[in-house]
Design a protein that fits this description.
The protein is built from 5 helices and 11 strands; from the N terminus they run βββαβαββββαβββαα. It is elongated, with a radius of gyration of 18 Å. A hairpin with a 2-residue loop joins strand 6 and strand 7. The strands form 3 sheets. Strands 1-2-4-3 form a 4-stranded mixed β-sheet. It is an alpha/beta fold.
């Protein structure tokens, strides 16, 4: 099962047909995705289930419905086991950004984290989950596909928010403060931070 977020509302890709409650079922092969997104935005449903018969093809079919934007980002730790967050558009987020021509996704993730936070000495530890969310620009919906990496840096210098990208703050966040920060974050970020923990908010 995949979850693609529109704001904090999920579009769930599934092969199971469930009885509708606060969500609506649609067949992925015949769905009008723009109408679905319009209904979600107007708070008509809390979620949408897109149903297909082939589990292996669900994500591929969904990604073909809208233009894709590929991005890379980092869940960065320091030697205190704190995580690096940025504050943008009134929300706490993890640093990430779009790929540039001829760039590998690893290079994108490292570059974007450095540009958005002013950090240096970054190294990639391992790949993490891929997240998906839908956004709108100039009356066109897009699917952002973000490849995440666990990173490490022993940098202890000044963190510099990339203001031209709307970032107003950069902070190392300890585990004791994560819940407060994530209360003002995005659903995808909550899933990424608590990938191996129970989290419900």
């Amino acid at each position: 099962m995949y979850k693609i977020f529109v704001g904090n509302k999920p579009i769930i890709l599934t092969t199971k047909v469930e009885t509708e409650t606060n969500f609506k079922n649609f067949l992925i092969d015949s769905v009008d995705i723009n109408k679905v997104l319009s209904k979600l935005k107007k708070h008509k449903y809390d979620a949408v289930h897109l149903i297909g018969s082939n589990k292996e093809l669900l994500l591929k079919k969904f990604l073909s419905l809208l233009p894709n934007v590929i991005a890379g980002g980092g869940k960065v730790y320091n030697k205190k086991n704190e995580i690096l967050f940025i504050f943008r558009n009134g929300k706490w987020d993890l640093p990430k950004g779009k790929t540039e021509p001829k760039e590998t996704i690893n290079q994108t993730a490292l570059r974007e984290v450095e540009e958005e936070t002013g950090i240096s000495g970054l190294s990639i530890i391992k790949p993490l989950d891929v997240t998906y969310h839908i956004f709108k620009r100039m009356d066109q919906y897009y699917i952002k596909v973000t490849y995440w990496f666990k990173m490490y840096s022993d940098y202890e210098g000044v963190l510099i928010p990339q203001e031209k990208e709307g970032i107003t703050d950069v902070k190392w966040i300890s585990e004791s403060k994560l819940t407060k920060v994530l209360n003002n974050s995005y659903a995808n970020i909550k899933l990424l931070i608590y990938r191996f923990k129970y989290y419900c908010k």
